[in-house]
């Protein structure tokens, strides 16, 4: 029997994200299948990412514009061509870079649609993605980029200064390279998180140590990034692992957030783009073989210096990743490829606006030799579909925050990061 979009029942509602800010959830029902899709939100946004509207407006747009559009089309949802057609109708209606309808309207609907399409074929989402996008399908092992030390806009509190009260670098992530399974990678991340907690509390007192937006630690009064790196390496060792061999670091510098009028305001100094490249190459040379990747080491429009940073990092075997630089959009990715600006692209579904659009960007990246790292946002929900995206496509990495060990996070409702890692474990162990 054909599953027609005209028979779809959809509703949108407001939910709270991990920062306690309102966001949108969509629920779609067709016969006895009900699926959901949420939209996360960033704090350090690229200027060209898909635009959003107010939550009330997004809910209205879903219920009064997009769902009626889909229903009127009355397409057979058991065919993937129809799914693509519905996504394209939505993109056409959304306005320039989603400014009219908002990516916070299109994305949760799109996520729910893909879940529905998978369910109609009796497939898990990752298996559906592999089936309909064979060029992207891969069984390559995905590295977990687990953010355990937070700075920048994810950690700063009103009245504080970056580089003094908090580190400027937004994320120091640990990557369990030696893990043979996702279960083991998660355990390794948890052990390092626990070791770091002990070290930080001993050194700075429990009062000064908090968990920031992505659940990793931040220390009030620790503004020096070099000190933070040293502490993370100490934690890796304390947890029983060898830095560089068992565990590498990945950084998200999020440099756009401290770039003002042509200069980087970094660690209390004004640095030029060239100075920033030097800081990063010196850092890698100080810890040879210990860094896997550096994301947004420069600001989103500092193209020239990106090319030089990537050239320098290639000789050191460190992957440069563009987040604000590419905003999961084709025109910026194409420009980056022309400039040889970065070796990898960060993939965020809400920067793009739809799942279909995101997959097209990933396909273009793959065909051009640019690697993909699938990522959450700093304001997250329990939607775990980015794990399916990473797993289906064998992306270089899945970046989804702190592992949130159960000792500190006993309530599963707070597991907005952990659920994505757990989903990876479940897909690998086929416990789903
Ligand atoms: C980033 C993300 C996620 P935000 O910069 O990569 O870690 O942060 O969602 O605030 O843009
Ligand atoms: Mg980033």
What would you call the quaternary organization? single chain
Uncertain spans: none
The number of strands is 16
The number of helices is 13
Q: What kind of sheet is the major sheet? A: 8 strands, mixed, barrel
Estimated helix fraction = 25-40%
Proportion of residues in extended strands: 15-25%
Listed once per kind, the bound small molecules are: 2-phosphoglyceric acid, magnesium ion
Biggest sheet strand order reads 4-5-8-12-13-14-15-16
Q: Overall mean pLDDT score? A: 97
Determine the N-to-C terminus distance: 26 Å
Order of helices and strands: EEEHHHHEEHEEHEEEEHEHEHEHHEHEH
Describe the structure in your own words.
The structure is a single chain. This protein is α/β, with parallel strands linked by helices and 432 residues long. The protein has 13 helices and 16 strands. Helix 1 (55-73) packs across helix 3 (103-120). The longest helix has 23 residues, at 182-204. Residues 252, 254, 295-296, 323, 346 line the site of magnesium ion.
Give the helices and strands, then pairings.
Layout: E1 9-16, E2 22-30, E3 33-38, H1 55-73, H2 80-93, H3 103-120, H4 125-132, E4 143-150, E5 171-176, H5 182-204, E6 209-211, E7 217-219, H6 225-238, E8 247-252, E9 259-260, E10 263-266, E11 269-271, H7 273-286, E12 291-295, H8 303-314, E13 319-322, H9 330-339, E14 344-347, H10 349-352, H11 355-367, E15 371-375, H12 385-393, E16 397-399, H13 418-429
Parallel strand pairs: 4-16, 8-12, 12-13, 13-14, 14-15, 15-16
Antiparallel strand pairs: 1-2, 2-3, 4-5, 5-8, 6-7, 9-10, 10-11
Helix pairs in contact: 1-2, 1-3, 2-3, 3-4, 4-12, 5-6, 7-8, 12-13
Bound molecules: 2-phosphoglyceric acid and magnesium ion.
């Amino acid at each position: 029997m054909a599953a027609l979009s005209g028979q779809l029942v959809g509703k949108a509602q407001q939910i709270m994200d991990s920062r306690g800010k309102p966001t949108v959830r969509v629920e779609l029902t067709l016969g006895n299948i009900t699926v959901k899709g949420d939209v996360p939100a960033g704090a350090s946004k690229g200027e060209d990412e898909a635009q959003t509207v107010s939550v009330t407006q997004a809910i209205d747009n879903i219920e009064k514009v997009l769902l009626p559009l889909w229903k009127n089309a009355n397409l057979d949802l058991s065919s993937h061509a129809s799914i693509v057609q519905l996504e394209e109708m939505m993109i056409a209606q959304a306005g320039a870079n989603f400014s009219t309808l908002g990516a916070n309207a299109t994305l949760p609907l799109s996520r729910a649609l893909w879940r529905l399409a998978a369910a109609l074929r009796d497939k898990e989402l990752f298996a559906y993605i592999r089936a309909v996008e064979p060029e992207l399908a891969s069984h390559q092992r995905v590295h977990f980029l687990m953010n355990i030390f937070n700075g920048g806009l994810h950690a700063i509190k009103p009245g504080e200064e970056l580089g003094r009260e908090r580190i400027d670098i937004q994320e120091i992530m640990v990557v369990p390279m030696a893990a043979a399974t996702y279960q083991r990678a998660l355990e390794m991340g948890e052990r390092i998180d626990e070791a770091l907690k002990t070290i930080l509390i001993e050194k700075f007192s429990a009062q000064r140590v908090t968990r920031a937006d992505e659940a990793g630690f931040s220390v009030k009064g620790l503004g020096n990034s070099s000190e933070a790196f040293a502490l993370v390496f100490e934690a890796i060792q304390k947890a029983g692992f060898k830095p560089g061999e068992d565990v590498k670091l990945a950084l998200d510098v999020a440099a756009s957030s401290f770039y003002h009028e042509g200069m980087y305001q970094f660690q209390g100094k004004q640095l030029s783009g060239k100075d920033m490249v030097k800081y990063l190459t010196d850092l890698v040379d100080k810890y040879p073989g210990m860094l896997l990747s550096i994301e947004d080491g420069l600001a989103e429009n500092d193209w020239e210096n990106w090319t030089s940073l990537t050239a320098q990092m290639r000789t050191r075997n460190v992957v440069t990743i563009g987040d604000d630089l590419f905003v999961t959009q084709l025109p910026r990715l194409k420009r980056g490829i022309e400039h040889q600006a970065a070796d990898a692209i960060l993939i965020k579904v809400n920067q793009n606006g739809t799942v279909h659009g995101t997959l097209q960007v990933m396909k273009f990246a793959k065909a051009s030799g640019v690697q993909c790292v699938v990522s959450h946002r700093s304001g997250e929900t329990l939607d775990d579909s980015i794990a399916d995206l990473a797993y289906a496509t064998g992306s270089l990495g899945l970046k989804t925050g702190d592992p949130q060990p159960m000792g500190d996070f006993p309530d599963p409702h707070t597991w907005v990061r952990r659920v994505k890692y757990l989903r990876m474990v479940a897909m690998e162990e086929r416990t789903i």
